[in-house]
Amino acid sequence: MVAAAWICLLLPLAGALLITLLGNVLSRKAAGVLATSSVAGAFVAAAVAFVMMLGDGEHHRSHLSTGFTWLSAGSFQADFSILLDPLSMVMMLVITGVGSLIVLYSIGYMHGDNEERRFFGYMALFVFSMLMLVQGGNLLLLLVGWGLVGLSSYLLIGFWHEKPSAVAAAKKAFIINAIGDATFAIAVIVIIQQTHIVGFDALSALNPDNHGVLNLVALGLLGGAVAKSAQLPLHTWLPDAMEGPTPVSALIHAATMVTAGVYLIARCHTVFESAHQVQNIAAGIGALTIVAAGAIALVQTDIKRVIAYSTMSQIGYMFVGVGVGAYASSMFHLMTHAFFKALLFMGAGIVIHALSGEQDIRQMGGLRKLMPRTYVMMLIASLALIGFPLTSGFFSKDAILAGALASGPYGAALWVLGMIGALLTGVYTSRLFLTVFHGAPGDLVLRQLGPDAHGQGATDGGHGHGEGPRTMLIPVAILTVLALGGGFIQVFDWWTGMQTWLESVVPSLHEPTGWQEAISSIGATLLGLVGVTLGWTVYGSRKDTAPKPSRSLEHKLYFDELYDRIAYAPAAFIARFVTRVVEEPLVIGSGDLVGHVTRGAGEKARLLQNGLVRSYALLIALSFAVMGIVFLAVR
Amino acid sequence: MALWLILLPLGAALAVWLLPLDRLAATGLALAAVLGEIGLWITTLVRFDLDSGKLQFEEQASWFKDLGVTFHLGLWGYSLWLIGMTVLVLGAAIAFGARAGRERPRAYFGLMLFLLAAVVAVFEAQDLLLFYVAWEAMLIPLYFLVGVWGGAGRVAATYKFVVYTIAGSLLMLTSIIVYGLQQGTFDMTLTTGSGSMWLFLGFAAAFAIKAPLFPFHGWLPQAYRESPPEVAAVLSGVVSKTAAYGFLRLGVIEFGGPSLRIRDTVLALAAVGLVYGSIVAFRQPDLRGIIAYSSLAQMSLITMGIFSINLAGFDGAILQMVNHGLISGVMFLLAGLVERRAGTSDVARLGGLARGRPILATALLAAGMIALAVPGSATFGGEFLILTGVFASGWAWTVVGAAAIVLAAMYALRLISAVLHDRKGEAVTDSARDLRLPELAFVLPLLGCLIALSIWPNAVASHSFGKAFERCTPLANVLKLTAEDCP
Looking at this predicted complex, what is its ipTM? Predict the structure, then answer.
C-alpha cells in the first residue's frame, strides 16, 4: 500500500522531469500523452492503495513511511516521509482523478499553442506538488508542498507570459500566497520551539493550557489557509488568476489547490479545537466570503471571473464546515465541488474556445441550439452548484449547513449567512447560464458559430469550431456523471460513507439531528430555487431591464483599491524614500567620500613611487610594517 | 590533502603566469586546474569523516616558533562544504571568463586561480596569522580583477572596495596580534577564547565590512556593478562567505561571551539589513543592482543565523552560506549572459527573452525560484533553520525574517519577469540566442548542486558540526566560553 502511495507521488514528478529534459525530442502530442498517463498512473496507484486500505481495520488505516532525513538541526528532525491515511486518501483520489481528466482535456484545449510541452510539464509538476502537500508526512513537508503548489500556480497563471496582465496576475498570486507561506512557517517554527518535533503528532503535543501559543499557531496556520484558499481578505489574487489557460483554472483554481486550506484545517484540527476562538474566526471568514463573493459574482461580466467568485463562495462553505467541526461534510463538499466546478470551468473553456477566446458573457447568448452537448453538461453543473435536489452539491452543501446549525448559536448565525449564500448562488448561476445559453445569439456568436461560419474554425487548427474533439468531451462526460451522482457517497444520516471513512482521523464535533438536516436541506433548496426564479425573471425574459449593478460590487468591494492605498503605495514610497534619502546620499555617498580622500592620497603616493605601486601595495606594506614593529617590540 | 587543495591552484597560477602560453593553452591549463581541484575536493569529501565533528586532514609546520605561530591547516565539517562551494563557483567563474575571452588571458587566469587558492586557505587556516595572510591575499587578485577587467567606473569602484576592506583588515590585524600574544599562541585550535569586547569588535569590523552588513555596504553596489560578471559572482558568492565564516569561526566561537552580550545589536543590524536590502533591491534599475542588494539581504540573514548562537542557527547559516554562494554565483553569471546578449543590464530595456529560448528561461526561472527560497528549495531549508534558531533569541527576529520571505518574492519575481516575460524589450533582438552548450557547462553544475541540495539539504545541515556533538552537549563544545561567561 505504501509502495503504491510512493508511486502515486513520484509518477507525476517523473512525467514533469521527462517532459522538461527531453525538450524538443518529444513531440507536442507525446508531451500531452506523457503528462496524462503519468497523472492517470498516479490515479491507478492511489486507487490500488485505496482498495488495500479498505481491507485494513478501521483504526489501523494510518501509515507513515519514511524515506530519509530531509532536514535536521539541533533538537529537531524532519523526515522526508509520506502519511497515508483516510484523509490524505480522499485528497489523493480527488487530485489524481480530476487531475487526469483535466490534463486529458487540455490535450484538445491547448492544441495549436506553440508551447504545449511547457504547459504539460507544469501541469505534471503541479500534480506532484499537490500530492506532496496532501501526502507530506510532517508539517514541514506539508509546507514544502504548500510552497510548490504556489510555484506551479505562478507558472501556470503566467503561462502566456507575453501578456502583461497574465504576468502581473501570476506575480500577485505568488506574493499573496507568500504572505500565507510566511505565517504558516512561523506557526511551524513555534511548534518546533514548543515540542521539538515537526510530525503531525506535534499538534497534540502542544500544551493545551498555553492559550497564547495555541492561538498563535492556529492563527499562523489560518493565515496560510486563507491565502491559499482565497478567502477574505487575502482573496484578491484568485479572480486575476483567471488569466491562465482554462484547464489551469479548472484544476488549480477550482478543484484542488484552492481547497488546500480546508485540508490544512482538517489535518490540524486538534490545534483549532484547542484554540476555539481561532476556529470560530475561520468559520466566520468562510461565512463572510460566501456572501461577499456571491454578491460580487452577480455583476461580473467575464465568464471565468463569475465562476472564480463562485469558487471563493463555495470554499467559504467548506471553511464554515471545518470551522464548526463538520470536517467530513467539508471534505465531502470539497470532493463534489471538485467535480461540478471543474466541469463548469471545462464547459466555459469549450464556450471560450468556440468563440475564439471571447470571455465576456455580454457578447454571448443563444448558445443552447449551437452547442447542445455543452448546454446539457453546463446545466447539470449549474444545478449541482445551486444544490438542486439529488445532484451532488445538494447533499454536500446541506450537510455543512446542518453541521453549522448543530454547533450552537454562533453556528446558527453562520447558517443564516450560508442560506443567503444559497440564494445568491441561485441568482448568479442562473444569470450566467441564461446569459450564455439563452436569449438571442449575439453578433460574435453568429460570426463564429452561425450557419454561415462553416470552415472558419479551421484557421486555428480545426478546434475553434464546434464543441471540441473527443479528448475534451470524454473527460467532460465523466465529470458530468460525477457531478450528477457523486453526492450519493453520503445521503443525510442514512448512509454516511464519507463520515465513517474519516471518523478515525478527523471525527466530527457535532451530530446534526434529523430536523436540523431537514430544515437545512429544505431551506437551502428553496432559497436556491427562489434565487433561480429571481435570476430568471431578471436575466431570462426581460434581459434589457436588468437592474444596473451597484458600483461597489463592480469594483469588487474595493479590495484591490484598498490594498493599493494601504499596502502597495506606502511600500513603493518607502522603497523610493530609502533609496533616495538613505542609500544613495548617505551610504554610497560616504563611500565616495572615503574613496576620494584616499584616491587623492593614493595619487600622491603614486607620484612618489613613480606610478608603479598603487595605494593598495602601500597599505599592505604599511600593515606588514605594523606587524613587524609589533614583533620587534615583543621580542 | 588540505595542503594540496591550496597548492594545486597556486601552482597552476604560477604556471600560467610564468610559462609563455598562448590564449588557448592558458585557458586549457586554467580549466584543467579547476577540474583537478574539483576532483581533489570530491576525494577529500569521500575520505572525510562527516560524523566525527573533529578537525581533520591537519597539516602543521613550525613558522615563528617563539611566538607560537605555526603553518597550521585543517578542515572542519563546515569548512569542507564552504570549500566545495568555493571550488565550484570559482570554477564556473573561470569557465565564464574563458567563454567571454578576457583580454590578457595569462594574467587573468593566473589571478583567478590565485584567488581560488587564497579563499581555500582562508577556510583552512588554523592559525591566526596564517588566516590573516590568506585574508589579505584575497584582496590582491580582486584589486586587479575589478580594476583592470571591470566596467567604465572600475577605478572608483576598486578604490572604494579596497579602502573599506583595508580599514577593516587593519583593525582585525590589531585584534589578532593582541589576542595571539594574550593567549601565548596563534594556533586557533589551542586558543581558549576571550571575554574582551574590544578584541571581538576588531574582528567584527573586518567581517562586517567584507560581508557586508548594513550600514557598512557603501562599497557594494559599485563593486558588484563595475566588476566583470564572473568576478561579481565570486565577490558576492564566495568572498562574502569568508566574512560569514570569520564571524562564526573567529567571532562567535572564540569570543562566545562578547558575542552573547552584543547579540541583540548584531541581530538588529542584520534585521535592518535584511529588510533594507530587500527593499532597495526592489527599486534597482538594473539586474546587477537587484542581485547586489539581494546579496546584502541574504548576508544579513546568514549573520542572523550565526548570532542566534545555537545549533539550529549555525547549521542553517552554514547551509545558507553554501546555498547563497551557489545561487548568487549562478545569478550573476546568468545576468552576465543576458548582458552579453542584450548589451545592457537595464531592466527597462529587457524583456520577452523566454520566447524561443527555453533553456535560458528554465535556468533563470529555476535560479530565481531558489533565490526567493520557495518552500522545498535548499535556500528555504537554510532560511527555515535560521529562523528556527533565531526564534530562541526573540520571536520578533523570526517575524522580520518571515516578512523578508515576502520581500524576496517581490524583487526576485521582478527580476525574472523583467528578463523573461512581457513584451520584447528594446535591447532584445532576435539574434540573442538561447544558452549554448559551453555556457550550460558552467550554469548547470551550479544549478544541479542547488537542486541536489533541495532534495537533501540535510547533507550540509547536519554534517557541518558533526553528529557527534549535536546529540550531546550542544554549544559548550562549539563555543569557547570563558569562566566569566558561564557563571
Answer: 0.89
Helical (H) or strand (E) element with A15: helix A2-22
Angle of CA points A177, A178, A183, to nearest 5°: 100
Q: Nearest 5°: CA angle at A317, between A315 and A323? A: 105
Distance CA A164, CA A156 (A): 14
Query: Is the CB of residue A381 less than 8 Å from the CB of residue A373?
Result: no
Which one has a higher pLDDT value, A510 or B172?
B172
Quick one: CA dihedral A187, B291, B134, B441, positive or negative? Answer: positive
- Contact indicator for A241, A249 with CB cutoff of 8 Å: yes
Query: In the 8-state DSSP scheme, what is residue A359?
Result: -
**Using a CB-CB distance cutoff of 8 angstroms, which residues of chain A are in contact with residue B411?**
none
Q: Are strands A490-491 and A76-84 parallel, antiparallel or unpaired?
A: unpaired
Same domain for B395 and B340, yes or no, is: yes
| b/e code B274-288 from CB counts within 10 Å (16+ = b) | bbbbbbbbbbbebbb
**Which grid coordinates belong to A611?**
606610478
Shared domain for B479 and B433, answered yes or no, is no
B237 and B326 belong to one structural domain: no
Sign of the torsion angle spanned by Cα atoms A475, A478, A481, A484: negative
**Interface size, chain A vs chain B, as Cβ–Cβ contacts under 8 Å:** 196
Q: Hey, of B129, B160, B423, which one would you mutate to test binding to chain A, going by the most A CBs within 10 A of its CB?
A: B160
Which pLDDT score, from 0 to 100, does residue A464 have?
Answer: 44
Output the average pLDDT for chain B: 87
Does B458 contact A69 at a Cβ distance shorter than 8 Å?
yes
* pLDDT tens-digit map of A241-254: 888 898 998 888 88
* DSSP output for A95-109: HHHHHHHHHHHHHHH
Task: Supply the pLDDT for residue A459.
Answer: 38
Domain identity same for B213 and B273: no
CB A217 within 8 A of CB A206: yes
Q: Do A614 and B143 touch (CB under 8 A)?
A: yes
Query: What is the extent of the structural domain holding B140?
Result: 1-261+460-487
Using the Cβ of A171 and the Cβ atoms of chain B, whether some distance falls under 8 Å is answered with: yes
- Is the Cβ pair B362, A145 closer than 8 Å? no
pLDDT reading at A10 higher than 80: yes
Count other C-beta atoms under 10 Å from residue A192's C-beta: 23
List, for residues B302-311, the tens digit of each pLDDT value: 999 999 888 8
For residues B257 and B274, membership in a common domain is answered with: no
Residue A425 grid coordinates? 448562488
Shortest alpha-carbon distance between residue A623 and chain B (Å): 7
**Extended beta strands in B42-161, E state:** 56-64, 69-75
Judged by CB atoms closer than 8 Å, whether chains meet at B315 and A68 is answered as no
Do B345 and B209 share a structural domain?
no
Alpha-carbon separation of residue B323 from A23, A468, B409, B482 (angstroms)? 28, 48, 17, 33
Q: Could you tell me which residues come within 8 angstroms of residue A409 by beta carbon, excluding any fewer than 6 positions away?
A: none
Residue whose C-alpha cell is 589576542 = B179
Q: A283-301: per-residue pLDDT in tens?
A: 999 999 999 998 888 888 8
DSSP A272-335: HHHSHHHHHHHHHHHHHHHHHHHHHHTT--BHHHHHHHHHHHHHHHHHHHHHHT-HHHHHHHHH
CA B453 – CA B318 distance, rounded (Å): 13
Using a CB-CB cut-off of 8 Å, the residues of chain A touching B422 are 161-162, 164, 167
Cβ neighbours of residue A3 under 8 Å, at least 6 residues apart?
none
Domain count, chain B: 2
**B356 in the same domain as B341:** yes
pTM: 0.89
Task: Check: CB of residue B277 under 8 Å from CB of residue B223.
Answer: no
B349 and B212, same domain (yes or no): no
Rg (CA), chain A: 28
Residue B260 is predicted with a pLDDT of: 85
